Amino acid sequence: MPSALPSSRTRWWSLAILGLTQLMVVLDGTIVAIALPAAQADLGMADGQRQWVVTAYAVSFSALLLLGGRIADFWGRKRAFMVGMVGFGVASAWGGLAQSGGELIAARGLQGVFAALLAPSALAMVSVLFPSGRDRNVAFAVFGIIAGTGAAFGFLLGGALTQYADWRWCLLVNLVFVVAGLIGGKVLLVESKAEGDTRYDIVGTVIVALSLGALIYGFARAEHGWDEPETWGFLAVGAGLMGVFVWWQSRTSHPLLPLRVVRDRVRGGAFLLQAMVGVVMVGAMLYLTFHFQIVLGMSPLMAGFGNVAMTVVIMATAPISTTLFTTFGPRVVLTVGPLLAAAGLFFLSGITAEGSYWSEVLPGLVVMGLGFSLIFVPVQNLALSGVDAHDAGVASAMANASMHVGGSIAVAVFTALYSSAMADALAQGTERLPALAGAYGDVLFAAAWAMILGAATSFVLFRGSKPEVPESVDAVATAR
């Protein structure tokens, strides 16, 4: 850590730069999603290839986040941030100029590699710059709101760029963020790094990357049928390798993910809840966007606006949600939040080809916004509560990885679910648009059950009430 914290003014300007980075990383998970129909047509991609434009980013990001967090801790968080910015810009330019589906997928994968360096270094620097007290709560509230609204902002920005410019600008726009981040980072950010043991766990990195790759590919293969031996073979290999990874982390002297980071009940609960959030924000919202454009016939821009209702609700109710959190504690708030989100998803699962946005979509998005508002503000702070400075980067990486692993698996599973439902409906003589609406509804119904699981996780693991809230979040209401 730096020997002394920067001035208050410098710290808040630094937060602005780090928040901008967080926005870029989060919205890049969704900004391309709304451009997929246009990109698919332009590059001649099949439906099965289309999902990998989203999945390639999420897989490489989540597979390398833990290593990225350790690099940030050991090599230097500012240095990792700057290198990540440059690499992310290069990958974005490549994707924006791609001439084939394979090239676009490769560029998205490279984006994920450098995002895995950027995201944990940014969040770790926030943790270091704001070590405790009211300022820390405000800083994490900012990051929580960005995480909660960035995905929807990605849909809106992607819609505007696709409609009025070209789908390629959904990638090229990152260069604006990159230039701002490099200039601001050079001028404002201060270096910090962990002391002591700084050896990298390369073996652990390879194991966890192979494990996640096998799991996600296995779920993606389920599109061809759950009875395929290849599907279950990859799933079994992925699960087995994950077990090997946990065993290795308990044996090696320099683990990629020190088990002390995830063994804490509150912190572990926060990681699991973030995975469930990723199922919805990365997986389910992708198919709701398809419904807007393909079934309801919305333009890309109007499809982007279609998601804004949830964002507005999250931002409007965030101060109230923070007050409720400090009053009632994590168990109540982080159980009620997922239940509200699930209620909104259950409502959305009833979408039809003949229905309207106003009657079949908007009410569900409003309820979802209320639910996610209760989740986003506290969950990142809880995920980093009580973490030693030596582990700030890897804990930040785990917080990000949880959401993106959940989202990566969800995209693969939901694609299989959608394909199966669509095939069954068409075989029964259902017309194409009603069949699509029904298949998308099945995806949203499954996502609702993921949020029910998130509520159960919170209820079981956050067993205390207000006394269990970490001291660092206890004063957040007064900062509002």
From TrEMBL:
The keyword Plastid does not apply. InterPro entries: MFS (IPR011701), MFS_dom (IPR020846), MFS_trans_sf (IPR036259), Sugar_transporter_CS (IPR005829). It is a multi-pass membrane protein. PROSITE patterns: MFS, SUGAR_TRANSPORT_1. The keyword Lyase does not apply. Residues 14-466 form the Major facilitator superfamily (MFS) profile domain. Keywords: Cell membrane, Membrane, Transmembrane, Transmembrane helix, Transport. It comes from the Bacteria. Pfam families: MFS_1. It is found in: Cell membrane. The chain crosses the membrane at residues 12-39, 51-68, 80-97, 109-131, 138-165, 171-190, 202-220, 232-248, 269-290, 302-325, 332-353, 365-384, 405-423, 443-462. This is MFS transporter. It comes from Aeromicrobium duanguangcaii.
